[in-house]
Amino acid sequence: MTEKKYDVIVVGAGHAGIEAALAAARMGCSVMMVTMDIAAIGRMSCNPAIGGTAKGNLVREIDALGGEMGKIADATGIQFRMLNRSKGPAVWSPRAQNDREGYSIEARRRVEAQENVHILQDMVTDVYVENGEMVGVQTGTGVRVPCKALIISSGTFLNGVMHTGLKSRIGGRFNEPPAIGLTASLEKLGFVSGRLKTGTPPRVDKRSIDFSKVEEQPGDPDPEPFSFQTKEVTRDQVSCFLTYTNHDTHELLRNGFDRSPMFTGLIKGIGPRYCPSIEDKIVRFAEKERHQIFLEPEGRDTNVVYVNGFSTSLPAEVQYDAMKTVPGLENVEMLRPGYAVEYDFFPPHQVKLTLETQLVKGLFFAGQINGTSGYEEAAGQGIVAGINAALRVKGGDPFVLRRSEAYIGVLIDDLVNKGTSEPYRMFTSRAEYRLMLRQDNADRRLMKHGHKFELLPPDVYDALRKKEEYISVLTDYVRQKSVPPAAVNSYLESIGSTILSENEKVSQLIKRQDVKLSELLQMEFFRSDSLPLEAASHKHVVEQVEIETKYEGYIVRQLEEIKKFEKFDSMEIPEGFDYARVKSLSTEAREKLTRVLPSSIGQASRISGVSPADISVLMVYLHG
Predict the structure, then answer these.
(1) pTM of the entire predicted model
(2) Backbone φ, ψ for residue 319 (5° rounding)
């Protein structure tokens, strides 16, 4: 036993572990983070990038709750882009290419600087439970450490095995050992485990790329930071590059299928359907003549380039030969081949919406252990687990994000109620209310929680309240203000929009597809009128007013749907309710409900295999 007792122990120092440890510590808990390698804190196992479609929304939500991922990404980003700008704001998503080493160094610096966090370089091999509650862990060096709550965020390390061709070696990441013992310890407690697989592409030398044959992909000229606390991004950006596979590439890859660990059955775990390996792509999409390959630098001061889109576990020589058929890579030098990694996970029906496990009070799972894929999905779970672990220690009410409130809520709700047989990745299409869950309004949706849990500096929340005042003032202005034809017709003509024949409210003008409020407010008519200048001078205030005005009809409709949704979610199901007593339930529903143990009628209705008829029966039984 150690002399020190901790409120919360966090196993793993990846993206989930970082957010979990920092959140719990900032809420006043003593925290011990256990990692096999202190230098690997925040290490980016796969692509050195943060964000992307829907994933960028997760990062902004983490930031609004008081998390760290967005701030680290802003500090170490080498390229920033807002994806899907040509589409509606519901699918805009920020993405940053990051300096791989810089990200890990910055993450470690922030964790080490956090009061209440102690880092132990070791491995947790066993957990101790008394009367169904977490009481401590044992490490690989034989030290037993007491705790009140344990968060396991083990990434791909639980019994990890890496595959390149028919060669396999144990490990959770390149040149890093697996975590042994913890899976068996959890299985002894009654947990059910499974096996998943993910992969990574080769790395190549930038100096061996012929950039005259690839298409440059620059960053945005006016880059948007992730964090609401970052004023602006001022550093010069680095370009990425686009090229494509071809018929010759595919033929060479097919020639290696007889030595593929995927196709020979060496790999048993299921891989991510939405981020397939290159060999999987050419089998599943055989009709496609080419596939995109993005050449992405791993930092400003390195020659290592990540070959995005070429994830593979084929033999190294097959990878190398196939890459040389890709335009721009004819003389490429491969620094490291791609590989697949298999690892243990625990099907997520075994956790509650708080990420506390059903079987053991005070034990939380976060990240890839729950079957997800991606840094952002892991970090979103990490901050929720960290908050709930701290609340458990302090005797507070559980914290649950609704799926109508946040992408993080969609993520956790999907995992718990629907489960996953493959690595789960977030998409905008998973969110029914995605127009309400935009990346630009994450602060307005979630900072109230970060403020409540004291995870945000007071001035950040004060700035949000001032922003809300400005939005209200400017919204009133555009609804009340009428504009004459002479003031705007030349502008309307210039953008190909129908000119006015009579005065029209500004709010009606904004609803036209190509009309931008920011451009209207620059006109002389507005600059010399009763425009609330202070509110109109804030870019993000103007953006919020424009979006909410332009899509007002859709937003009102979604708010009505959310009210109905929340009505069912407010109908609680008593803890420990025995579904066997409800004879009218179908056998499948009784089995699924007993397995997931939903906390509300709304949650029960989202469980796969539970029909509307079953929900009606349950409502009558519980609520008359």
Answers:
(1) 0.94
(2) -55, -45
